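Inverse folding, one chain.
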């Protein structure tokens, strides 16, 4: 089976021996991973990783909680990174209202700027959305349809809102939290969405699945467990679920090869 992790964060700080980790990931049957940038230095590190390993791809962008590191002219540097043959998307971008010191206007400004950039470059986006459902939907409606597609990673909003996002042509990825029996909202959404909208991720080193509860770091080795859970929720075989996700990833991320 061809497992894929469309959203993880691979770096020396959290994992130590990255060479050893990547060998274990491949041994687990994970054929491709997308290592996701959250600011300029992390995006550059992801690029370097993709150049060293054939099965690693990357994204470049600014996460909404990392804007303290954002400077004028940084988007031009992101543009340069997107020219790389293995940069498959702009991301991780979006909105995050979880923290009390959130600068909502700045988050919206940078999010919209990166959505516009993706439109100009004809690249999909990887979107982070936390405690921001209404504003997220309204902004995405402004840009709809996203001509080159987009992914709501680690989807956490309601099943009803997922239907609205689905109308905009978005994809949805689910990670380790969806494997817990208490994750009823995620399970309902996985069951309700069209099969051609579903993707698997780990958001490593965070969000371990049920079998690794409390472990850190989580790794893309968890993808088979996540895919098995999604297959069970939808009442299909793991093989069918895995092939569907593989096809969906390559449809959304055109630069995967």
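Residues assigned per position:
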């Amino acid at each position: 089976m061809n497992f894929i992790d469309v959203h993880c964060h691979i770096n020396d700080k959290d994992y130590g021996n990255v060479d050893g980790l990547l060998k274990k990931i491949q041994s687990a049957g994970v054929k491709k991973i997308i290592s996701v940038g959250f600011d300029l230095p992390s995006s550059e590190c992801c690029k370097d990783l993709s150049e060293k390993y054939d099965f690693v791809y990357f994204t470049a962008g600014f996460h909404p909680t990392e804007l303290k590191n954002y400077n004028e002219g940084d988007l031009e540097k992101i543009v340069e990174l997107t020219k790389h043959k293995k940069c498959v998307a702009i991301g991780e971008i979006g909105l995050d209202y979880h923290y009390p010191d959130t600068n909502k206007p700045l988050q919206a400004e940078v999010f919209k700027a990166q959505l516009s950039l993706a439109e100009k470059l004809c690249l999909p986006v990887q979107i982070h959305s936390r405690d921001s459902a209404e504003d997220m939907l309204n902004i995405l409606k402004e840009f709809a349809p996203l001509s080159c597609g987009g992914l709501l990673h680690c989807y956490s909003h309601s099943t009803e809102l997922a239907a609205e996002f689905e109308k905009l042509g978005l994809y949805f990825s689910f990670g380790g939290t969806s494997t817990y029996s208490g994750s009823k909202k995620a399970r309902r959404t996985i069951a309700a969405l069209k099969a051609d909208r579903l993707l698997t991720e780990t958001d490593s080193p965070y969000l371990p699945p049920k079998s690794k509860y409390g472990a850190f770091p989580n790794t893309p080795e968890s993808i088979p467990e996540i895919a098995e859970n999604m297959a069970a929720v939808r009442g299909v075989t793991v093989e069918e679920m895995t092939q569907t996700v593989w096809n969906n990833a390559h449809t959304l991320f055109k630069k995967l090869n």
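The mean pLDDT is 97. The chain has one domain: 3-252.
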